[in-house]
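Incident review: delayed structure delivery

Summary: a single-chain prediction request sat in the queue longer than the usual turnaround. Root cause was a stuck worker, restarted by the on-call engineer. No data loss occurred. The affected request and its eventual output are reproduced below so the record is complete for anyone auditing the incident later.

Affected input:
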Amino acid sequence: MAEFESDTITIGALFSQDWFFRIPAYQRPFSWDDEHFDDLIVDTKDADRNSQYFLGTIVLHKEGRNTTSVVDGQQRLTSLLILLACLRDAIEDPEYKGDIQDKIMQQKRLLDGIPERARIEVKDRHVFNSVVVEKEGTLKKWDTKDYSISEKRYVTATEIFHQRIADLNQEQRQELVTFINRKCILIYVLADSFEQAFRLFEIVNDRGKQLRRIDVLKSKNISPEVIPQETVRNRIAQRWEEIENEVGENVFEATFFLVRLILLKDKPKADLLTEFEERIFKNGLVKKGEPFATLIFEYTKLYQDIFIDKTYIDTDDKFGIRYQSLIFIMNSEFQASEWRACLLSFARKFGREQFYLFCLAIEKLFLSQWAQGIRKDERYDAYSKILLSIETAKDAETVINSISFDKEEIIKAVTRNDVYHATFCKYALLRLELVTSEHDVPKYFTARSIEHVFPQTPQAGSKWLDSIEPGNTASFVHKIGNLVLISKGRNSAASNLDFDEKKKRYLKPRVSDYPRSNQVLGYSEWTEAVIQARTDEVARIFLDDP
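Output delivered after worker restart:
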């Protein structure tokens, strides 16, 4: 047989005795959104009944005579079967009901040697079989309180599909299921090997959730060739899904990129899959299989503790509250991610004792890079050296002392005349709030926007103009001493009120959450001299440890 075959096929032919599908362990849980379900039923309802309707492409890996594992397309195949099950339960004609059920569950045929078998074998088959495969299952009211995310999606899909076909009479329902069976088509690509199937997948456009590089890494690391024991493979696959559900898809995938950086200490030279296959596994940096999965699980747990839950240092620790407050604004405002790899690596090797001091060093290094506009390649070099230092150093103090940053450049950047237009301006103001705060409880500072106390464009005749030379505002209005954080939306009209009125009517309800910004309310006047004095104060305190 050739390496792969491909053809168009109707849904009726696909869900026949010649085809059975298995969702392999490396696939993500069933997770189509409500919008996907709605699109599927609305599109098929509205389609021209006299023309074929294309539902996309699926990529399959041949496992047996008529069994395939789904490399790409599990969300669509599963949803189509759920839709057929809803139509089965909504149609009254027993012949239609029987024919539809044959698509969902292959009936036993003794003469042909065909056993009774569900058309698709999903990972959470107990709930799927109860809701979808069993007749009338889509009409039952299911208590989903203890269901997994994918199990809940099965039930949600039935609810959406039933809602959308409720306006159809019996004849229209029969017409719809006949149209889906005879006129709705897919392109299937069937490969002899997983590797070939994945290469084909990469050039196929999928309307649903695509297989990611980390899904392929999962498949390669829990394959029978790598882990012979099925119980171990199943345990790792289950833990993989549990952790991804806990932290979310984006965080879980981001962790792989950070682990890549930790292991290679270099900028990427290829896509994530190739990096692990060619640069990490082949060079023995970590073994495939359980050692790799264990490493990913460990770093994901650290990521969750450090960045999401912010519980890595307990609040009873002398630095606990300060760490939680600082990591919150770092995680919220630092756009690049390489610095996170350093924190993960440091925590894994040295633990909690000097972790906060290391956070401070990394934070100031990032600030220095941000203030100077350091390019990504240079950032990678800096963090790669720190990762190497972590790997080779015998103690945490050596690593911390090796990190250098330019204090003068940071102070110069935050006190410049036009800091308001700098990308780091909001972070600088948030940091000042932390420096000014009492650390009795964690401070999770966020801000809707930045406000100029002295207006950017004071109106003619305003008291704001009494103390300055005409046209002189540009030299001080954007300085950090004139900027405060506000927790509510801006009001351009109120922003130009004279100082006393602005304090009472506009600033007071908007700055109360921020100790440094709140200081503005204690001033009786707001002049260029006040702004300069506050800017000079920033130069003195900005790099104090929050």
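Verification: The chain has 24 helices and ten strands.
Action items: add queue-age alerting; document worker restart procedure.
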